# Entry
Amino acid sequence: MIHHSATHTTTKIRAMSLVKATALVGLVSLLAMNLPASRAHAQHVGQTGGPSPVPTTKILAIGRLTAKATPSALDKTLPLEIRATARLYLAGKIDQWYVKPDETTVVFLMNLSDQKEAHDLLEKLPLGQAGLMQFELIPIGPLGPLRILLADPAK
Amino acid sequence: MSEAINPRVHAKILPALAAVAAPTNKILAIGSVTAKGTPEAIASVLPLEVRATVRNYLAGKIEQWFFQAEGYGVVFIMNATSTAEAHAILEKQPLGVAGMMEFELIALAPLKPLAMLIGEPAGT
# Structure
């Protein structure tokens, strides 16, 4: 099994993850998501040996420029986008915001537990409305595996 | 008051943004299980994995840690300046060594587009 190095492109790593996830789908049932670009991972939760699920405390939103995002289209829309994004931050919806150094991708941590609310807010942003950016949404929560450290101390 | 022309106001937006430095200072790491990572296999390695993760957190390498609410895998925000640096840390963790977990790594920098808002104020 090939261990991917980080020097591979993000696209390649994601493609391999999708191949593996697809293979595992046959073994476990997958939640049907109607929202765009939900990450398809093996659903070990609920299977024997799997950890208990964690509550959703944040939505990780990865926004990627689409093929339509030409320099002239971006030139027009970016000033509006940064202002709309800042308003979401000031409203407390975006907790943290980052950009990939090549500026093709933004990453937001949103103070939301509802993936649909995140989707509705982000698709209203100017780049989303112009079809220039698409968001992948990943609901995240506390680091559940820490639970295994909580057994009573040895006497 | 400065008489100099502010290039951020007078130039086109994209080249002006290029003049603002916002270097990579974090790496987003999204973990996913591999085919080798069956629930039973992972369960046997997990006690070691959790301890290695806590050590990396205490060492300041992992700044924030989360678990995916749907699916199986961690999400870390790591203090590193390159995906290679983050990869070197994560592949030493037990699940990485066992080939049961792999990571998508995304280099992150501060939100550079904010620089579009800091040109000279109008009227100066």
